[in-house]
Amino acid sequence: MRGPTQILPTDRADEMLINMGPQHPATHGVLKVVIGLEGERVTRAVPHIGFLHRNHEKIEEARTYPQIITYTDRMDYVSGLQNELPFILAVEDLLGVEVPDRAKYLRVIFFELYRLASHLVWLGTGMLDFGAITPFLYTFRDRERILEIVEKTAGARMLPNYFTFGGVRRDVHPDFFKDVADFLDFFEKRLPDYYALVLDSPVFQARAVGVGVLPKERAIARGASGPVLRASGVAYDVRKAEPYDAYPEIEFEVPVREEGDVYARFWVRFKEMEESIKIIRQAIEKTPKVGPYKGKVPARMKVKGSRYRAVEISRGHLGAHVVGDGTDRPYRIKHRSPSFANLQLIPDLLVGARFADAIAILSSLDPVFGEVDR
């Protein structure tokens, strides 16, 4: 049967069809892209998703509100607890829960630590796609220090289940602020090495500059967000447009480039790491030294009404639409995930490119398929 996303055998003598994935390491997850080639040029590219088949939203609708939080971690498993926040914010709004200032700043610190951890995974694996092994070793070494800091307080590393309604589940480890400050000092000194290895490398520039150009209008039309959108000249960041937690009290810039190519998307994420360092340092300084880390929340949560809240995770605009019918379980939950929307760009970016550049272009989108196949 013919479907809108199916690729039928080609009748063009000069075109070859191949399947890239869904077991290909450079697809960054279980993605299959059916690619048409004429020589080295891509003539068509159709992404196929659904191989992970996680069914998150229906599972969450069968759980109580506190039980759901641990499931959200597992959508974008590279960004960990960033996924918890939009759902929590929506429920807090519906219940009228007040979050203490200390908890707001702690949320910001953890949120930005996971942005750094996620961007390090992207950088290391992305450079593997370019054929460079050294950055991968460096980035995972530095990421390990972040996960160790999180583990000392939350008790887990990748999926900590640390945010909760009204704040955070427990207060931070006594050495938390010192550990974070020490890491920031260490990592800030590491950034010049990453610039030298990647952005300043003539080999990388030859592979990235002018490759996979995404015009601003096309990025907006496809619903792109995060670094992919900002690299095409759109200065949209949920932390600025719809600020949450302590972000209104913190000064930071939104990195933007106009070129919209692979190099621009790499550059934006590099600058975001610098901004995350600034944000965390301000949050450490402004966090109340004493005070509650969690507001008052009903023992049994019965939610009525609907609310949509969004945050700016490592990959862009992550939203949660929660509909409550007055019981202790949601009637409907819908997640809006950035990787899912960004994958629509694959035909736009790959058609006309060289096959060797297809991997670099896909890497610059930084997809995570836990949230695509949610």
Q: Main sheet?
A: 3 strands, antiparallel
- N-to-C terminal Cα separation, in Å? 26 Å
Number of helices: 15
For the record, the count of structural domains works out to 1
- Could you give the count of β-strands? 8
CATH top level assignment: Mainly Alpha
CATH A-level architecture: Orthogonal Bundle
Any idea what the shape is? globular
Mean pLDDT: 92
State the helical fraction. 40-55%
Q: What name is given to the CATH topology?
A: Cytochrome-c3 Hydrogenase, chain B
Side by side, the strands of the main sheet go: 1-2-3
Sketch the topology as an H/E string, one letter per element.
Answer: EEEHHHHHEEHHHHHHEEEHHHH
Strand portion, in percent?
5-15%
Give the CATH H-level superfamily.
Cytochrome-c3 Hydrogenase, chain B
Please state the structural category: alpha+beta
Please specify the SSE layout and strand pairing.
Blueprint lengths: L15 E5 L11 E7 L2 E8 L7 H6 L3 H8 L11 H12 L5 H29 L4 H21 L8 E2 L2 E2 L7 H22 L4 H7 L7 H6 L4 H5 L7 H4 L20 H25 L17 E10 L2 E10 L4 E7 L1 H5 L3 H5 L4 H11 L3 H4 L2
Antiparallel strand pairs: 1-2, 2-3, 4-5, 6-7, 7-8
Describe this protein's structure.
The protein is α+β, with helices and mostly antiparallel strands and 374 residues long. The chain has a single domain, classed as Cytochrome-c3 Hydrogenase, chain B (Orthogonal Bundle). 45% of the residues lie in helices and 14% in strands. The protein has 15 helices and eight strands. The strands form three sheets. Strands 1-2-3 form a three-stranded antiparallel sheet. Strands 6-7-8 form a three-stranded antiparallel sheet. Strands 4-5 form a two-stranded antiparallel sheet. Strand 6 and strand 7 form a beta hairpin. The two termini are 26 Å apart.
